[in-house]
Amino acid sequence: xxxxxxxxxxxxxxxxxxxxxxxxxxxxxxxxxxxxxxxxxxxxxxxxxxxxxxxxxxxxxxxxxxxxxxxxxxxxxxxxxxxxxxxxxxxxxxxxxxxxxxxxxxxxxxxxxxxxxxxxxxxxxxxxxxxxxxxxxxxxxxxxxxxxxxxxxxxxxxxxxxxxxxxxxxxxxxxxxxxxxxxxxxxxxxxxxxxxxxxxxxxxxxxxxxxxxxxxxxxxxxxxxxxxxxxxxxxxxxxxxxxxxxxxxxxxxxxxxxxxxxxxxxxxxxxxxxxxxxxxxxxxxxxxxxxxxxxxxxxxxxxxxxxxxxxxxxxxxxxxxxxxxxxxxxxxxxxxxxxxxxxxxxxxxxxxxxxxxxxxxxxxxxxxxxxxxxxxxxxxxxxxxxxxxx
Length: 390
Fold this sequence. Notes:
Oligomer: single chain
CATH topology: Na+/H+ antiporter like fold
Number of helices: 16
Order of helices and strands: HHHHHHHHHHHHHHHH
């Protein structure tokens, strides 16, 4: 028990110290969590030695984060805000595949490794992007909803990607594993379409008794959030998507107005653990030995993802200012990329060296993307001011 308390206290102290620095630099606190994981991980000071265990607990934070996101977002009434994200993400998939196969051809990588690189390009971090949108108060704008819907579409793609990895690893496979998730995705689409014009969902009077009982509020909220996530996982989709749908529905039930207050501490704690686990996975010795290829790969991901996304937004008739900002937001590879890497490595699809390199690039892109977004945003704003003055 003493060892556990020491580890938790050191973690809190480390995060607090980094947070004070980031607050002065006007940077998001997600950086603090990842850096703390790097410093305290098995390849750093060794305070924490089991990153897998912390990651499993931390994934609950992603479910709660997506649940809160669903509560806050408005399902768009305009058809364009539903169709444009699908078009944008489809174009990005094609461009990501082209980039990946170009890299695979130049470096003579096997087909499976090339496809996995394409997967890393496709998935962005919903957690990082949504936090930036909220921080800059653009989450509920037309452009913010467009980007968020792209991220939701990415989450829907997780099911077929994981199915593909299972097929290649020669696990037991049936077509039901593909058909059933597709049917669930169609059902989710119709649910969102049905409730987008509903101002309030009314529940029986019994649920009003929860308003005055804090313990009932906490466990009812967790049951709704995690229960929908479990249902989505069982259907072959991501648990994060299930929690998001739960948040969208609950956000239209006024009886549950207390949920945000009751679950906020859980959101902060578990989300922190998830990003700490990302830092714990970074092998500093491997990064040091291969820092040139890791840094080159990281900046290639940031720059190419930014350019791809900016061009896509511009093709959809968004102004260059919004296009470059959107490109910066979608510059990193996301948490689902880490999941795909882990499954591919454990299934024997990729070698250890590619797994370590992919993990290092993914983690560094998450860490550096926050700085990348802030820098590009300031450049865009400065240029806009200059153009106005002219």
